[in-house]
Amino acid sequence: MSEKQWIITFFDYFCTNMKQISILIPTYNSICVELVRSLQQQAELLAIDYEIIVADDGSTAQDCLQANRTIRQLSHCQFMEREQNTGRAAIRNFLAQQAQYEWLLLIDCDMVVCRKDFLMRYAENAHRAQVIDGGVVINRATPDNLRARYEKAAEPLHTAEQRQRTPYQHLHTANLLIRRDVLLQHPFDERFRRYGYEDVLLGRQLEEAHVEVLHIDNPLSFEVFESNERFVSKTEEGLRTLHQFQQELRGYSNLLTVAEKLRPIAPLVRLWHTINKRWERRLLTGSHPSLKIFSLYRLGYFMSLS
User: Fold this and answer.
1) Which has the closest alpha carbon to 147: 106, 194, 198, 110?
2) pLDDT digit string (tens) for 126-178?
């Protein structure tokens, strides 16, 4: 029996709960052709009804647009272009509305497929919950890159076992399988236009609605890291988002919890940040960033927003 025949036989016997899937990838100034090809190859082997929809959220980089337009030449694949940037929440809601199948697989455009049975693993587990998070691994060692060091240091805390202990606080749209009807009933909050936390609030909404969330070991690989300067700027943007929606996110952000515990000494924290923020930021955006300084900078920046 050939590999494809074996996979089809296995799928028909064991995986009766996911016969159709819409793979949804939002993108902005990023090329994701290889990601789409990898997913398409696995979907073809499973012999299920599938579609892959990539939605560009108003990219300004013409080289990325030109490259991604080739996705239209692939079978069962679409590339949609939106003239204006609508934000991280709205573009995902748009994709869910465009999808035609009962299962949605949300994937960030900078992810890399790192296992040959990625889609099959989801098919095997689809009967267990309405929302399944597969997780992310870090497969590149780049010690001078702050984002890479930060994600790698946090990796032991993001195993499937660890995530399942507080399943709603660890929901991430980088690699998330969810039933279409569930997401349409509990869409992303479109007030979240800037970077960060739209998936965290989705976790809270699902918990309040008593929708079961399952975390499994079925990761995508994170291998492309922005510059230190860009990551610090994105972190600052995310902290402003956290501050704006802190009432809605209370109990779902570790940084917010720490900040609330330190409220009695908030003036001292803000004073520290005022005095040291320039050299801290200079260190973080240089060639030898420190994770300890990064933690201090995040806390000081957030508490200085109040």
Assistant:
1) 110
2) 999 999 999 999 987 677 999 999 999 999 989 999 999 999 999 999 999 99
Q: Are 9 and 1 in contact (CB under 8 A)?
A: yes
For residue 21, which of 11, 32, 9, 30 has the smallest C-alpha distance? Answer: 11
Q: DSSP letter string over 18-31?
A: -SEEEEEEEESS--
Residue 101 contacts residue 64 (beta carbons within 8 Å): no
Helix ranges (H only) for 136-226 are 146-154, 160-165, 180-185, 198-208
CB 207 within 8 A of CB 252: no
CA separation, residue 95 to residues 48, 88, 128 (Å)? 20, 11, 24
Element (H or E) spanning 287, and its range? none
Closest of 209, 193, 304, 296 to residue 245, by C-alpha: 193
Q: How many residues does the chain have?
A: 306
Q: How far apart are CA 262 and CA 257, in angstroms?
A: 9
Q: How many CB atoms lie under 10 A from the CB of residue 20?
A: 14
pLDDT digit string (tens) for 112-122?
999 999 999 99
